[in-house]
Amino acid sequence: MIQGGSRRPLGDAPRLVANYGGQPEDWYKMASNQSAIIEGAVVEIHWCRNARTLLNVEYKIKRTYPKIAPKNQ
């Protein structure tokens, strides 16, 4: 979990409730570990989860390209 719950509901919680149901405090933003490397990019998956129903929705792939240090001349 990276965000959400009863302490600080997601900003997207009203939209998630309208589209998928539940209560605002039921929704969390989730993220996978940065483990896959695809074509030089580190890939992380993000999605929203309803903690009561365990419904997972709106998967997104986040790619991060490592910075390459300039070569010494």
Summarize the structure.
The protein is mainly β and 73 residues long. The chain has one domain.
Task: For this entry, give a set of tags.
5-stranded antiparallel sheet; 1 helix; 73 residues; mainly beta
Description of the structure:
11% of the residues lie in helices and 40% in strands. By secondary structure, it is mainly beta. Strands 1, 2, 3, 4 and 5 form a five-stranded antiparallel β-sheet that branches. The longest helix has 8 residues, at 13-20. The model has no long low-confidence stretch (mean pLDDT 82).
Give the overall average pLDDT.
Answer: 82
Question: Stretches where pLDDT falls below 50 for ≥5 residues?
Answer: none
In DSSP terms, counting alpha (H) and pi (I) runs of 4 or more, how many helices? Answer: 1
**Gyration radius from CA atoms, angstroms:** 16 Å
* Beta fraction: 35-45%
Global structural class:
mainly beta
In total, the number of strands is 5
Overall 3D shape:
elongated
For the record, give the distance between the C-alpha atoms at the N and C termini, rounded to a whole number: 45 Å
What's the topology here?
Layout (H helix, E strand, L loop, with lengths): L2 E2 L8 H8 L6 E5 L4 E3 L2 E10 L5 E9 L9
Antiparallel strand pairs: 1-2, 2-4, 3-4, 4-5
